[in-house]
Amino acid sequence: LVLLPNTFFFLSRGKLGRYPPWPGKIVNPPKDLKKPRGKKCFFVKFFGTEDHAWIKVEQLKPYHPHKEEMIKINKGKRFQQAVDAVEEFLRKTKGKDQASSHNSNEEKNRRNSSEERGKQSAGEEKRKASFSEGRLKKGTGEGKKRVSSVSSERGSKSPLKRAQDQSPRKRGRPPKDEKDLTIPESSTVKRVMTGTVAGFKWPPSVSEPVKDSDPHFHHFLLSQTEKPAVCYQAITKKLKVCEEETGSTSIQAADSTAVNGSITPTDKKIGFLGLGLMGSGIVSNLLKMGHTVTVWNRTAEKCDLFIQEGARLGRTPAEVVSTCDITFACVSDPKAAKDLVLGPSGVLQGIRPGKCYVDMSTVDADTVTELAQVIVSRGGRFLEAPVSGNQQLSNDGMLVILAAGDRGLYEDCSSCFQAMGKTSFFLGEVGNAAKMMLIVNMVQGSFMATIAEGLTLAQVTGQSQQTLLDILNQGQLASIFLDQKCQNILQGNFKPDFYLKYIQKDLRLAIALGDSVNHPTPMAAAANEVYKRAKALDQSDNDMSAVYRAYIH
């Protein structure tokens, strides 16, 4: 069996009625990305997303024969957009093929014309040579030698060959003796339906490399391929327990969804409460990876999009918890987290022995400990799992999950964590994840304030802010975070990717955490004051990068 890049498939996950398939195409994997052991699989790009994954061959269904069937089964808007993306790609490819065929015919005509001219030129040269030979009776040895040399030089190559040598080959066109290795869709489909996967090898690409035809690909894997010895080791550990000298236990779990696509969704029913900036992306990825999800949000209209994608609607938090096996929640602050659990028709009313609750909100350790106690007192199981990231990372399924509490529940959430994030850590007892998350956000918030301070200082001293960004991007501080936030400031675009009011809340809680153990946090305290000033300037609902405005007003 030969399966080439740009071969289109539907990815099938389990029974079609339960786990929706998704259209994709085979692409070349990065050179330093090793193929998973075990069953044969191919590296696939999913249309309508920026996801790439290794997919087992038995999960691939040929695109064209199953297109109508899949469209009937899946009515979701995102699925239709993905199919439309495939069709648009095919139309563009067909147009390129037609243009290539037209160019090939023109080249053939030119070569034929050149051949005719070559023949005429050869005949003319022959007549001239004969005429000269008849007139030159002296020095015939030199003359014959010269003419013979010319005739031999020109006659050693056919006119067509000379024409090819004289006109340089166009860039990107393969030599004549090379054959195009791209197999038409129809023949590929037949091979997939009847062939075997034994002896599969990725063929070298004759046309443009995949990285050129898909510019998002390497950008998507950039942070994972820069230092494979470090990064891949971190994301390929599956629930490996690491005992540290301090006695604490951490588990690095869940391969990145971008690297390992062999995610088998849990058969447990999943509930999700809270569809804000982070929750929306998480639910979208849970659905995309085939999980059965029931959603609830305080503003019910936000549920509509996910219902169209196949989610079920819960009328209250209590109803979601009572009908689902594992319920996740992601809300704004400690008060919202407590109200969700302890309020009317709240989570606690739906908890029965064996029910599982996972709080993904960024709150303080005292709040999460209190929630854990009331859940467990009703026979439930509790896990805290705040996430590090922003809206874009949430949408891309590239969050970092920090978990603590019920270790068995953590492992039960494995497929969910793989769907929503690139890495997850188990940090031991309840409260540890909350503390770690606040420390992470404290560093991030302080860094953001320092970036804003540097840009304003550059401006008032007559230095170019863009040049400052260029210099930083070439140094040790270079990061996606730095570049994106600086671009926000330079463009005056503060559309929220991480609300300013929430990073200020996290700084406040981190300072309180330091106070509880008598540890000074002067840098965080200074940054917190700047964010408080930004809030007073009505920047709460803007992105955290709007802290810049606290320096210019």
Verbal overview:
Keywords: Chromosome. With 553 residues, this protein is α/β, with parallel strands linked by helices. Helix content is 51%, strand content 12%. The protein is built from 23 helices and 16 strands. Strand 6 (240-243) and strand 7 (249-253) form a beta hairpin.
Structural class: alpha/beta
Q: Give the low-pLDDT segments.
A: 13-19, 128-261
Largest sheet: 11 strands, mixed
Number of E strands: 16
What is the overall pLDDT average? 76
Number of helices: 23
Q: In angstroms, what is the radius of gyration?
A: 32 Å
CATH topology of the domain at 270-430: Rossmann fold
Strand content: 5-15%
Using brief descriptors, characterize the structure shown.
alpha/beta, SH3 type barrels, Rossmann fold, 23 helices, about 50% helix, NAD binding
Summarize the structure.
Keywords: Chromosome. The protein has 553 residues and is α/β, with parallel strands linked by helices. The protein is built from 23 helices and 16 strands.
